[in-house]
Protein 1
Amino acid sequence: MNISYNWLKNYLDIEKTPNELSLILTDIGLEVEAVEKVQSIPGGLEGLVVGEVISAEQHPNADKLRVTKVDVGTGTPLDIVCGAPNCRAGLKVIVATVGTTCHPTVGEPFKITKSKIRGEVSEGMLCGEDEIGLGSSHAGIVELPADAKVGSLVKEFYQMEDDFCFEIGLTPNRADAASHLGVARDLAAYFRSTYILPNVEGFAEPTGASAAAVEVKSTEACPRYSGVHISGVKVGDSPDWLKEKLNTIGIRSINNIVDITNYVLHDLGQPLHAFDAAKIAGDKVVVRLANEGELFKTLDGVERKLSSEDLVIADDTKPMCIAGVFGGEYSGVSESTTDIFLESAYFNSVYVRKTAKRHGLKTDSSFRFERGTDPNITVFALKRAALLIQEIAGGTISSAVTDHYPNPVSPFTFDVDCKSVQRLIGKEIPVQEIKEIILALGIAITSEKDAVFSVEVPAYKVDVTREVDVTEEVLRIYGYNNIELKSQILASLNTQEKPDKEVVLNQVADLLIGNGYREILSNSLTKLAYVDDESTAVRLLNPLSSDLDTMRQNLVYSMLTAMSYNQKRKSSDLKFFEYGKTYHLLEEGYSERQRLVLGVVGNKSKEQWNASNGTVNFYNLKAAVDMIVKRLKVEGLQVVETANADLAYGLDYMKGQKVLVSFGAVAAEALKKADVDGQVYYADFDWDLVIRSIRKNEIKFKEVSKYPAVRRDLALLLDDSITFEQLKNIALKSERKLLKGVSIFDVYKGDKLPEGKKSYALSFTIQDEEKTLNDKQIDSIIQKLIINFEKETGAVVR
């Protein structure tokens, strides 16, 4: 939500600077996410001064140039070369002095420097409209009135005032603050001052004249409906002040009638809608629920099929707009409109929200109606808009105000005990100060006894319905920062199950970050096309969009989406990891599973002149997986080829009968779905199983051996089907005590080997903790390994 600094000044005197005010707004619960300086003319005419041409002589070296002396109020005239045909002595002009940055109507800004033009010194520029953004004319320099004061700022001459736009992250419960009036109310409460409402006393409705007949058929969906008829309007451009107000908060000007409704919406928080009265069939307005399947074309030109739960504003034959959400294509105001019917209503927030979600529409009106508007401001807003229309579009109010309000909304009434307020806040705020804040917030106190107030909360404060809500209101105005922390904090110690999941998670995250990985966070919502099994998918009943209608069953597409996003922004060497949950609907109910996933794509490292580079491969990912397994001391894993459908090939590390981690190359189909370039290598840890696997791990200390380890190598000719894991298990089974490690350092396949054969070069680390091994013992162990390899795999030593 955007709020204008100058606009707020219409409601109350503000002595604080925009930056100071932004801090205050954040303190009282209206978090300011950004403050932006807004100028109606780019550059704001900064640095430009009023000057007077003292003399204008022909340039000695150019027929179309003049050498002028210009008084800018400094006491020393400036020499300026000018080529404008209307440049002459005695003229009051706009001068851009040396160092000024000019912002032209078309093109990039440019800075004025001291220069020589055809041999003559020029110490500035006499400005035309298009050169400083005042207009598009290039006929000559701007001629100011004779009474313009030399040396004064041009921005002051044109009475230009910079504005500042506050971007406020409005929380859903603060519907009362979704306008300049709402923000002003909060500021008035903070400053313990008063705010001034716009004056609508000039509104005069004709006696006996009535607006179009209004019939409200669904008072539940529309508790209040107000309207008035305005005749003789002239639709056209809005005045500059109105355009500037809307431009400051990011609203594009359309025409004077629509601009006024938008202005009142952001001013008072009350959405309005203007109908072309000539297009209301039967001169009758009907507020009703739509017929199931009824077709309606909205302002964006899209024909929509309505539901029987959609509230519409219709005429005698057809819908004219979707109530509180979007107008119709044919019933709105156009250039030919002369008479309008102006609507101001209070719609049920639930109906508006469901309709907006059903049709995928989000407008400024629905934003406010969904959260709850003020049912008691509809007529005031109607009068405010009608007076502005009279002033700007020249219409006349030609009917009395129609106001259907059969069941007025009552204020919320309950008791507030100041002792409870003090207890919840944690500070003994004086009762009198609590009372002052409550009253400053517009909450009435009907009775008071023993520091217990009976309060009436106005209906526009839709989230203040209980004592605790008033406590929150008091606290945010009093100031969270004014609540001191006690020097003594009383707490009880809680036993926690080991291992601490958060500690383990952070340890692994730090390990990955230290190895060049970056953590990503992805939405748990995804599209149905990305799930593994539709029968177990968790679908949303009221999704935000078709791309966010299902809870994810895997993290592979979250990873690939992030990679695709980065690749499209010229970042192609990626190493990501993510902690997240997957969701399934099983026979026994809903299931959430914690996962850790890794993904790599692109080059191993950034290009460097003194080092060769290459693309990542399966073994780079395997090294990261093994690093995590080793760091967590997960033991007893079996290695099998992966059965993961998202992987083209890879391995699974099994813990018993369960897969601890699957890793390998992502299948081409998944890469195509996510629009990712290059081969992605992906690992998926069952994090819940990881935590269970390390639950009984103990820290063990082992003294460093005094005796050296010995390495021996073997080259074996094997069948293609034999894996390194099989050889490793055979070796460790053959020599349990002295064999400390087995690794592979070379693999060869080629035409020099028989068909279906491969060569593995293995290294064996042998060590005795109690003595130094001799050659005879070592040879005995190696011979035993050779015999077992030959016996169990048919290996041949090369």
Note: The CA atoms of residues 180 and 769 lie 80 Å apart.
Protein 2
Amino acid sequence: MAITQPAMASGLAMLCGGAAVATAAIVALVTRQNPTRTWTLATLALLLAAIPAVSVAVLEPPRQAAIEIGDGHRMNGEFAIVGKVETTSLGFRTDAVAMSVSAGREPLPGGVPVTVLMSERPDGAEIGAVVRIEGAAFAADPGERAVLVVRAESVVLVRAPSGIAAASAWLRLRLAASTEGLPAPAAGLIPGLAVGDTGGVDAALEQQMRAASLTHLTAVSGANCAIVVGLAFVLAARCGLGRAGRVAAGLSALAGFVVLVTPEPSVVRAATMSAGAMLALLLGRRGSGLALLALAVCVLLAADPWLALSLGFALSVAATGALLVLAPPLARGLGRFLPASLALALAVPLSAQLVCSPLIVLVSPGVAVYGVPANLLAAPAAPVATVLGLAACLAGPVPVLQAGLTALTWLPAAWIAGIAGAVDALPARTLPWAEGLPGLVGLVVVTAAGTVLLLPPGRTRVARLGRALSAVTTAAVAAAMAGILVVESVVVPMTTPQDWSIAMCDVGQGDAVIVRSAGAVMLVDTGPEPEPLASCLERLGIGRIDLLVLTHFDADHVGGLDGVPTDVGLLLHGPADERDTARVLSAGAQAVVAATAGMGGALGAARWRVVWPPADAVTPGNDASIVVEVGGGDVPRTLLLGDLGADAQRALRARGELRGPYEVLKVAHHGSADQDAGLQRQVAPALALIGVGTDNDYGHPRAEILDILAAQGATVARTDLDGLILVGLSDGRTTLWRERADAASAALGRLGGWRPESPPRRAARSRSSRGGPRSRRRSC
């Protein structure tokens, strides 16, 4: 709460601190000489909770001053790079802190953290470098560590890294260079497996790694740190060092590893978690491991309170705790059926997956079906690739030795890349799951039930009862998941038409329209959330977007941008401010263009043309939405109106750009009442598509537009009643297919039990516009 509501940080700190003092006083008065452990822990917990709030309260004044000075202004000055420079589709991104920077005529407070977006990267721009940046700034989202986002227009290197930072940067660059000439995509994976450098991982491999739940292998995580510490511990033991010497060697190696891979916050976090876990394992005390883990969490939160909202931090803590608490009993339970070494190898990734899955479902409401098997298959290769890759990196001064070690590293890297590619080709890689808190609680229950079955059985009556309940729960969920898997992978593909040319995805209260012609794909808007869009694209077999159109930047049109495939050709967007332009950088497009009327091009056998906004439209919003006309080949003539209101529709009509009538109309603004009847008459659609959420708060679609469309004799298809909508051409006639053909099949529609349907003839259009009962066979 202190992070998202910084004005309350001081009050929260005083509240927690006062409660800690009061609790300590109660302990002193009541328990006197023998305070109970519970009271002591309560006092410590309250005290430690106050420390991050104090940090926020201390840091907030300069942060707020920086926002007031910098938000919406131009910046010019020197910044120190403190994070890894990451490659994006349209440039580079890094974390930095302000040194001597001015925003307009006022100086920015020193030490303020910022996120820098750069179109070009100067040579030597690594952690420890100082760069001079000129560009525009805007406030970062609440809860972010960075105070401002700076979109750099020019970047000049002032001072390159020196000393150890320069040496580690040189070693990383030499490792990346040594992979040239090795077969792709595994060659680009080598620096990621060794030192977390993902610059060589192409978009296709990144998507495959994500589908296989293997992305953690290309980032520096606790596993990498554990491998380094373990190797150092073994070498120290071989040299005859005692326990203290082994611990010192392991921690020294860990510190060197952090410097080599760049000491950015995520790396320091992983190293801290790993250090706690490794110290506990080396000391042989599981309880001390938990204590060290708790201490590490408190220290990190005190130093960086914004970690509290970091999913990566939560996953690191959960995975480390699973390694300490859950992995040993899981290994014993699996050891009843498997050899001890294999049981231990399975217990480590399985415990992490069981604990982390409920957290992942908060941001991605789905369960990775093949995540555990993929990680088990990749587990033998990951440490080999890490060790060989690190050796190759450190061998930079000896090119011949480095080349040989890099070639050896390619073998386990190719194995991991092959697993990712094989999993990505499997059907139903992710099964749907409930969102938010219900999804988390439900998955916690399911994973707990499965874990109980894997642990050694207890002998008490309660233990036997708990085991029986766990077996029933696990069997029921497994049966349900198997049914969904069969439906998603077999029934849905068999019952979904393949000859469509226009698809309107059911993404709730928002728009996401796909146009396909001769294998080329255009996506117009993304809906409000990434998961429904990603599910729709996967269902329709869409893996590449040749043309992505973001009509405007309202959340119900661009909120699902993370669900767009990483392989995007051209991105067209409407008028945008600085924040919107920064969002476009994350879309993964090869080219980005601000759209104006008159632009056009080919989409397979079809042609597309932008008819709105005019070139002088610079204000973002509904009335500046991109309006696209597309048709030809196997695509019926279609007009996509974005969110244009009545005034903008009248202006569009007055420009004389429309070439009606059109077979298909994407109704503006989800069927709001703000419509121009004259434009509807000019367009004269045979079929009107409305992207709208069930029981939405706006009353969309409104009776006014439905009556206008009914007067035109148009057939209305809407996602709240019909689900996924597919449109095509058959023998020169427009055909319509609805996911939910009638109320009786609505429930089955969510599981893929769909009924095909064709629309009415244009000459005898249906007058029903409100989604009432329809015959199964119709034609336009």
Note: The first helix runs from residue 9 to 31.
Protein 3
Amino acid sequence: MPGENLSREEARERAALLSVDGYDVSLDLRSAVGEAPGDGPRTFRSVTTIRFRCAEPGATSFADLVAPGVTAVSLNGRDLDPGEVFDGTRVLLEDLAAENELVVDAQCAYSRTGEGMHRFVDPEDGEVYLYTQYEPADSRRVFATFEQPDLKAPFRFEVRAPEGWTVWSNGAGERHDGVWRFAETKPISTYITCVVAGPYHYVTDSYSRTLADGSTLEIPLGAMCRKGLARHFDADDVFLVTKQGLDFFHDHFDYPYPFGKYDQAFVPEYNLGAMENPGLVTFREEYIFRGRVTQASYERRANVILHEMAHMWFGDLVTMVWWDDLWLKESFADFMGSFSMVEATRFTDGWITFANNRKAWAYRADQLPSTHPVTADIRDLEDAKLNFDGITYAKGASVLKQLVAYVGREAFLEGARRYFKRNAYGNTRLADLLSVLEETSGRDMKAWARSWLQTAGVNALTPQVLLGEDGRITELSVLQEAAESHPELRPHRVAVGLYRTEDDALVRYARAEADVHGPRTVIGELAGAEAPELVLVNDDDLTYCKVRFDETSLATLKARLGSLEDPLARALCWSALWNLTRDALLPARDFVDLVLRFAGRESDIGVLQMLHAWAESALTHYAAPEWRETGARLLARGALHELRQAEPGGQHQLTWARFLAAVAGEEPELGLLRALLEGTERIEGLEVDQELRWAFLLPLAAHGLADEPVLAAELARDDTASGKRHQVRCLAARPSSAVKDQAWAQVVESDALSNALVEATIGGFVQSSQRELLAPYAVRYFEAIDRVWAERSIQIGMDVVRGLFPMLQDSPKTLDSTDAWLSTHEDAPPALRRLVLEARDDLARGLRGQACDAGATAAR
């Protein structure tokens, strides 16, 4: 990664100097097929013409390009020596004129890491598929560019591709004389340009809309995937959600979709969930389901589709000046994804998933040492890469949900409408959005922004109930706390719900909505109410906070959580209990016990899946070591019991089957998984499809019950790209020191594996049942990460540093080793130090949880 960084100050200086009028990019991708070169990387020809102006004629600047070689460079008709002006990452531009034309003829490399022009060979049929992925700064791996979001310009692409291929880009395209030429785009940022090429399976549809002026907006729709996935591709459902989303955004934004066509490409080996390239959105192909999945998976896909669609306005039409204001697109898209999904699609319970799932990501991120304000301090591109995190996405979205409660729904939407119209095709900062919201709401948005957008950390809200002799509430107050490291006490718009038992169900009988300020706020409306069994602060999930409970409420939940009738209230309570566990205020075994007793009654399948993930994490990281074996046995037997009790063929049955595979470690559970694979035993209604087969094989491999021939035979059944990833994961999971050494070498010592296979190998390597086997790699990890970060792409570096941190060696010794590395590497790249600091914090939190859990044993 050396030399590839770009600082904020460099970007500011260049933006003050240059303005870009347009790009013409010509790519020759015919080299994607055929024999690889004998030496060096496989490359393609990229010829870029950039027309731009300079505010100070005679000045010096640079263009960005990451490429193995440059054939020719000309500036304003003058041929420049590539060896003198190109250093591998930048093209030096001296003596600029007022108006300039730069032409760069380069040999760019195909990628195996999901960055730039990614090349994938399908093992099923040998076909080659290409796609680009750029955010935040990888378009420079495909063409010469001014790689920063505020130097927007129109783009014209032309692409030469192998015979039989189709090529797509942001604009509509046609093929003439072997060349695909695409319509010029509107002014957009470099990172959202896109090319997809190959023999993709392509399905079309269309959307039409009568606009306010009586005209008709016609949007051609397309959706594509690899040919090998075509039989699984439910494009009709993708189009249904797409049309529902377009209706919603047209209804509420009063700004017609501005980018012509709307293609959606599901592509292989994708690092992200999706990317909002205007006119050509790219998604990870795992959103095409090869086997049976629950409604939660369809909801998640719908949310991502709508998230990316919201970006067409928040991010593509109006773009932040620099990555400090990344929230101006990601927070809004995350919020609008759930908002539109709940109001426009069949997934009307989406706010439950938001409260239980998305916010969990935010709460974790906001308590790490790397937490930052929603509007972050992004010094350079490496900072930007790491800030696509739970703060920017989920906390920012939660803050916007609070904002809607604060200013009102219509004021919020009217602010968005004015924001689009004033800043279309331009770049903005925080102040631009706040000014329109002040207009529409009449509120002081600067004070709100200082508290919510410009400070870090999460507050905890705890109810305090005083009862009179008549058993009624004399006073109910909400106490607000903040961590010492981030002491800001914020204004919260909250609902406080009171619950009691009626007909054997916990139901809400009183509710008050109020503004919470400072350390203590009295909720006067609830005085005189009957004594509650449960007080739920932040009922209806209006604000962003950690919910705490008074003693009576916590006792009620421990006894009767499953009888809490409202699914959103139940999800909020589960989330609060998990936060108590992570904060070492609730023993991990108590949380596991709650899951064992009440998860079987959970109606919301997304919440149930989250509970399974939390229970597994509680056992792996927060339970006292001496209780882990007992806890694992309890979870496995509980999962088996629920599996047998679940409705045959239902999604709860499938979810419990997957959880059983995740926690099985002994007989009879492992034996049942093997019997289900072999067909010697059946559970009524449970279809063991190919994806479930791989899920069952992973624990069998990890416990030495599925060897290499068994896994090879399974790959023969499923000789696909997905099957290969599963096999690689299972192979790396086997309990053998030789296997672990090989997996380590493949990931750390070699760059031969693609990004997807690196991820699969790491996933198999790290098995919670193999702590002793993995112990030697703790030392090797700290010896290797400097070199990995220096030599590999930032995406692979992140995968290795995060994925191989010795979290399972959860002892003070590992904490000391981490501190020793940090103290001796103070000059390491900030992004690398951040990753290690985050892992250290997770480890320390786990150790505190283990101490809490061990204390529970002593107390009992």
Note: Residues 830-859 form the longest helix (30 residues).
Protein 4
Amino acid sequence: MAKSARERLGVLLGGSKAAEFSARLDAPADGVGLEVAGVGPVRLPLRAPQVKKLIAVARPALFGRREDTLSDSSVRDTWQILPDQVTLGGPAWPTLLDGALEYFRGELGLPASTRLRAQLHALLVYGKGQFFLPHQDSEKDDAMVGTLVLSLPSAHTGGELVIGHAGQSRTYRASKTELSLVAFYADCPHEVTPVRSGYRVTLTFNLLAERGAPEQESGPLDDMAHCLEQHFDAPARPRYGGQALDPPRRLVYLLDHEYTQRGLGWHRLKGADAERAALLRAAAAQAGCETVLALAEVKETWDATPAGYDPWDDYGYDEEDEEGGGEEAAAVEGAGADEDYELGELIDDEITLGWWTGPDGIGGEEISLYVWDYESCASTPSTDLKPYDSQYEGYMGNYGNTLDRWYRRAAVVVWPRDRAFAARGEAGSRWALDELWARITKGDRDGARTAADSLAPFWKGSGVQPGQLGSALRVAEGLQVPGTAAMLLEPFRIDALTPEHADDLAAVAKRYGVPWLGQVTEGWFGDARNRFEEHRYDWTERLPQLCAALCSARSPAVAQLLLTGAWTRVDGELRLWTVTGPAEIRRARLERLSLPLLRILEVADTRLRGRIMAALRSCPDTVLECLLPMLRHAAREQVEGEPRAAELAAVAQECGDRLGALARRAPRAAGDWSVAWTGCGCDLCGTLGTFLDSRSRRTLEWPLAKDGRRHVHSRIDAAELPVDHGTRRQGRPYRLVLTKTEELFSRERATRRQAGADLAWLASTWNLSGEVGVDARP
């Protein structure tokens, strides 16, 4: 398998490694089929009813002692099904078995010319209390060198396979969800411990060693080159199972030391890194591959427990709590040093490349590339190195206690030369765009198109940087293929656009048409999911200069396209936030729209300006929370002596009309408790609306079930209604008690006062026409 090639390469680069006497490999059960005579197809993972059917067709297992075959449940207590009753197959089985045998050949240290073959021996079922005492397998064939145990996934405890050799011992526990394969030499004593619960079901095989085709003697370099060829030719297999993928595009070999961007180079590598990188680079050249150096960020998440950890803390138990005097117990107090934790199993790891050099090790560029588990290997595990940061997360329910560790490592990245363009392009490499442009300028437009098309599967999700937009625009225009050009521009966002891009933007619009560009920029603007991004509209500060540059490039239609796109997004935000609460959030969102709206109005033509004014007039009075900050921005930017812009004067007049109406509104009558509000249209909101609409009614006691109370509470809070709401927990159902508050009157007085103050500022700053001298006294 590809995984085996990666692991063997790491071993070769790390130096000699003593052969193991046993080894384990886990694999997904998908695509593996098992049938047993008298039972039929056996589904995985195993369940107790199906295991009982297996036992019904089994017999007590025998064992050998010297020349005798015996049956003694005090030595071996298990059920056995003979191989002629078992059929093992399925679409994934042949590939899985071949890859596993090649993996075990390497792990057990057998010669490269040896071919292992697995001969099914028996299906074994261990129930509660069953076991097999320490023993040694007899060699049932002259070619037999070992035993392969395939544990089928099932929920059970106990039943561990314990293997010993030369004073060492290995313990293997089967998986509940995956196939577990363990291989070991036939001369190794081993035992199966008693099963405590559930069932342990295994298939045992005799491992036969056969001489393969004779191979020429090869040195480490040839072996490494062979590993690379295998890695890039075999389908990729994800760590957690699933269907096989296309062969990997790259191999990332992690070095041991940290380096800076400036210090990363083939001739500046440290210690063992220098020798290993040189060997891998030479093997890559022999295998027809290209290499670069990279900087990697490695994150590992471990199951971990702190020193002195008490699992009962996870349940918040404290003696003081029983007496009522303690506070809620924390799971684990603050994290200490990384060394203060005991590591359990590795839960997950991530590798990200953020920088790499050119193949010659000179220069470099920022990239963003996630490395999949089937693309990486190392001679030194990260756990043998010191992390630069770690963070402990206490008990998290299903997640347990976890420790995150971060490492900075250098890496050698390898890819076949014939896949180099896609391998580098997937990282959002500036080199890919430069190479495409070079081919275009040399007249190789067809080659550029073919290379660009190879980026399509991943280009949108690659690490393309905003600063590469200019290059992408030039290449898109030069390709002269609308679909491929649109694909190259797809990863960018509108905030990457600057006035310096005006000429290139005009060129692609001329090449493919403004409607085509409109479809591209539609994606640049994003959709409603981007609504909460803090700096979504910062780019509009450049909008007037960008539009002027586009007009100078004789592309006013493109300027209009961008203006219309910007206004469409701002309009959508205005329509949303002017009717959305609570007030603190609404005001912040609307004020954030004030500068973008100002820049759009500054360069809008008469037609667009008319659309904007019509939309603003259709908004409720909360739109003032955007328009007044916009007018204040404009007043601060006003150059003394210059006339007021007509479009801003129109907005100021609209604000003045609204503020005047608010300030002139008659005070609420003392006994008028009506509250204007529109609900969601449901029956509950209808009842609430009737209560709110009443001028005389201040309280409502409303028998209502829990879900109904929750809905009414949420509606009152969302609209910030001047109504106290609580639950009287008497009777069934409980009563929801609503009370209109004096805030109904104080809010209106505050609104009139603020409207008067804002109107006075408008009148003095913007020379409003009409009535502005309003008495805003309460």
Note: The chain has a mean pLDDT of 85.
